[in-house]
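Late entry, evening session. Most of the bench is empty. Finally got around to the prediction I had been postponing all week. Sequence below, unchanged from the version circulated by S.P.
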Amino acid sequence: MMLIFNKKKKSIQRPVIIAVFAVMLLFPAAAAAEPTTITVKVLSKGAKFIGTSMGGVQIIIRNMATGEILAQGVTQGGTGNTAVIMKAPRDPGRPLSDASAAFFAATIDISSPVHVQVSATGPLSQIQAQNTASVTQWVVPGRHIRSGDAWLLELPGFAVDITAPASAAKLKNEVRAVPVQANVTMLCGCPLTPGGLWDSNRFEIAALVYKDGQKIAETPLSYAGAPSQFQGRVSIVGPGIYELFVYAYDAGNGNTGLDRVTFAVK
């Protein structure tokens, strides 16, 4: 057997290989990406963690420089330890969360520090109660954010759900007062009761009625005898389309939530 070498091809390849080698010397190899874990937990203002019982919270982790979404998901788990969150003295060095608190965890591969934004929107099961909080922080490769409370955000609001009157209800013109019923909880689903841990006596819970953009009635709602249930009656003034708001307000910290429906009087 005779071997034939293509001298011309060999002579072309050699300069190319040398050139590539020279470029590699001029530009050091890129640093290897390091897996870096980010754990996010979301606290209901004045209450506990928002987890699976309220549909969780949508979490988006984004590269601030490029806008790229690095990870996204939903918090899952429980509301946490009531005694630790609500009863124990607050100590800056002591985490509020434990293994029972809902969280979302993601591992991102980064080779250099990244300025990251974490945004949280929820609770997902109560659209009318959803709020969004976001915060930014630098993340360094291999420096995990997962110990203690990890990356902790707080969402303001109450989950207010009007159960009567029904949305788009049509009422007769003879009606002069409309019964109002609402379910009101903290965003974590924690119940409101008189004298309870979330004391409904501390909160202002009321109904507002508007017609043609003008407020025509404002009525406080009273505790209806079961956790988180409130009721009252609002006055109306003849035929038209009405907009009804029920709000919960904590004067101690400004926390506010509401729901609204419209109804017609024919």
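Two things to note before I forget:
The two ends are 104 Å apart (CA to CA).
The mean pLDDT is 90.
Will write this up properly tomorrow.
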